[in-house]
Amino acid sequence: MDNLYKPFFARIIEIIKHTELEYTFRMEYSGEVRPGQFFEVSIPKYGEAPISVSGVGAGFVDLTVRKVGKVTNELFEGSENRGFFMRGPYGNGFDIELYKGRQLIVVAGGTGVSPVRGVIDHFTKNIGQTKGFAVIIGFKSPSDILFSEDIKLWEQNKDFILTVDKGGEGYAGNEGLVTQYIPGIPIGDVNDVQVIVVGPPIMMKFAVAEFLKKNVPENNIWISHERKMCCGLGKCGHCRINDKYVCLDGPVFNYAEGKLLVD
Predict the structure, then answer these.
(1) Fewest CB atoms within 10 A around its CB: which of 63, 77, 158, 241?
(2) pLDDT digits (tens, 9 = 90+) for 82-137
C-alpha cells in the first residue's frame, strides 16, 4: 500500500517571476491533477506549506507561490537547488468536463487567479466547448498583476476583463473592483450557466451576491476555500469547518454547501 504522506523530490523546470513576492515554479510531474487541487510543498528543517495548482501540462505542474512565511521564503532563497519535496495532489479541483457545453463565467481576484488559471487557459484555447465564456480578473494595482504572458492570450476572448483597484499614473486599463463588472455580463438560461468565483473572502461574498441577483442557482456557483491545510487527508483536523475538511471535501466547493462553512 502506498504511503500517502511520503513526499517525493520534484525538479524545477522553470521559475517565472510575476512580482517581487509571487513566482510560479514549474515542477517536473507526471500524473493526474486538476486545477484547484493542491500539493504540500516541503523543505527539510523548514516545514511544509499547501500550494494550489496553477497550471497543468504534459510532464509538469505549475505552483504559484507568494512569499509570506518561513517555508515560502526558503523556496525563493533556495531555488538554486533546482528542486524541492512535494506530496499530493490533494483535495478536489475544478471539473473541466462539468463546464463543457454550458455558459461559463469565471471571476477571480489577486492570488485567487492561480487556482482558476488552468480553467481559463483551457477554455480560452477551446472556447467552442462552451455556450459562452466570460472572465473577469482583478488585482490591487498594475504591479500586482500575475500571469502577464497568459493574459496576452486570454485577451483574445472578447468577453475577458482585466481590472485593477487603482491604476495610477500611466495606466490605461480598467479600474475598479471585479464586482462592478458582473452586472454587465449577459446570462442566457440561468439553469445552464456555471460560475466560478475565487479570491479573498470579502470579494467572493459580494461577487456571489451579484450572481444571486441575476437568479443564478446556488448549485451552479463554485468557490474555493483557503485554509491552513496540513495533512491533506482529513486526519489532523487543522482545516476542519463544521463537519467538513477543506483538504478532503474541498478546497473547491459548490456554493450551496460552501456558504455554510463559516468559522
Answers:
(1) 158
(2) 888 999 999 999 999 999 999 999 999 999 999 999 999 999 999 999 999 999 99
Q: Which amino acid is at 162?
A: L
Q: What does the DSSP assignment read for 107-176?
A: EEEGGGHHHHHHHHHHHHHTGGGSSEEEEEEEESSGGG---HHHHHHHTTSTTEEEEES---TT--SEES
Q: Which CATH class is domain 8-90?
A: mainly beta
Cell numbers found for residue 32: 493526474
The amino acid sitting at 143 is S
User: Rounded to an integer, what distance in angstroms lies between the CA atom of residue 32 and that of residue 69?
Assistant: 29
CATH 2.40.30.10 in the chain: give the residue spans: 8-90
Helix, strand, or coil (residue 173): coil
Write down the mean pLDDT value for the chain. Answer: 90
The type of residue at 86 is: M
Q: Does domain 96-224 have CATH number 3.30.1120.10?
A: no
Supply the Cα-derived Rg of the chain in whole angstroms: 18
pTM here is: 0.91
Q: Residue 182: its pLDDT value, please?
A: 97
List, for residues 135-192, the tens digit of each pLDDT value: 999 999 999 999 999 999 999 999 999 999 988 778 888 999 999 999 999 998 999 9
- Amino acid symbol at 206: F
Q: What is the DSSP letter of 36?
A: T
User: Residue 23: beta bridge partners?
Assistant: 17, 65
- The DSSP output letter for 180 is G
Percent of the chain with pLDDT over 90: 63
